[in-house]
Fold this protein.
Amino acid sequence: MNAPVVGFAGMSHLGLVSAAAVAGAGFETVCLDTDQKLIASLRKGALPIVEPDLAELIKTNGARQRFTSSAAELAACDVVYAALDVATDAEGRSDASALRVLIDSIIPVMHDEAALVVLSQVEPGFTAALVSPPTARRYYQAETLIFGCAVERATKPERYIVGCADPSRPLHPQLRTVLSAFKCPILAMRYESAELAKISINCYLVGAVSVANMLAELCESISADWSEIVPALRLDRRIGRFAYLAPGLGIAGGNLERDLATVRRLAGANGIDAGLVEAWTRINRRRRDWAAKAIQRALLDRKPSATIAVWGLAYKENTHSVKNSASLATIAQLNGAQIRVHDPAVAAHLINNPNVASFDDPMRAIKGADALMILTPWPQYRRVAPVEIAQALNGKIVIDPYAVLDPIAAAKAGLACFTLGRRPVAPR
């Protein structure tokens, strides 16, 4: 059997990263998108997304990974992934209409033995409801995209979750060849189980985030320190060293919100109590306001027109996405303050506020400001010494929810740092 040719339809974040990983594993890969301008940019090496190591991987792939706007080129593919990002609204509701249109456009050009794999995040029942191709050549594969570390996740997967009509039957041989190249477990299950598996993973993640956020807030009230508690949790086998224990400013990015909305809808339709999901939502909405309340108490109550520097606009580091960004939500609450922002990947024009000024250098942004808020933990911010921050600021207040700055070094520099999970560290 010749090595399969693999197609990816939809050069969204998911499609572009996934295709690059498959090409990196040695397979000829056809990357389709109907946006001709996007394809022209990709051929030149200009990427529409910020993702560490992606540009280098695509460059290394060379001719193995080719970009096209012609669906006819998928006729040469033995496995075709539908990999379009599924849009969500502010409430987390998905709209898969564009994905359905994409699938309808690629099925007619696929050869008679090719497998179709739905890689996009969809609700349970989506893949089974497709009219074609036949179920023996129709699959769903749970995506594992995480913004900011997507390349590592795609090239070194923990496992593959594959939905099929009959999990007792062997997988399509060409699809198995592709998946086996990554040398990880392949978990075959029925369509609906695989579609719900991805949602289940995200629900457990939200549960962990919610517990961390709740207990971190309790720490702030009783003089405990969440960072001291975390090592004890990691050494408990029931929780483990890989558990997500970092508190944050609520959940963001769109994917987790979407899956919670899906669970609420399915639970409601089937008479199942989803009160736990509602509790998670309340906890995370409450923590989203943490930074705004902290700066209000520390500074704005006495100086409403203060100048505040904000480092970070993206919803997390190493991405350009601002979907449900806690930083943007915080800035929207700083009425009357003068805001000076820096983000290495996000342009400040996304903020419709005349009091916001953008800077291309984080140190220029904080020069003379009354306070600094580090709302996205970009790696370059960790490299700035607290003493440099203290020298540049006019004031000494730093809202640092993610503990980007070393608390002892910050205190020695004279900074008053406010961090999730502990009471403010007073300057020494």
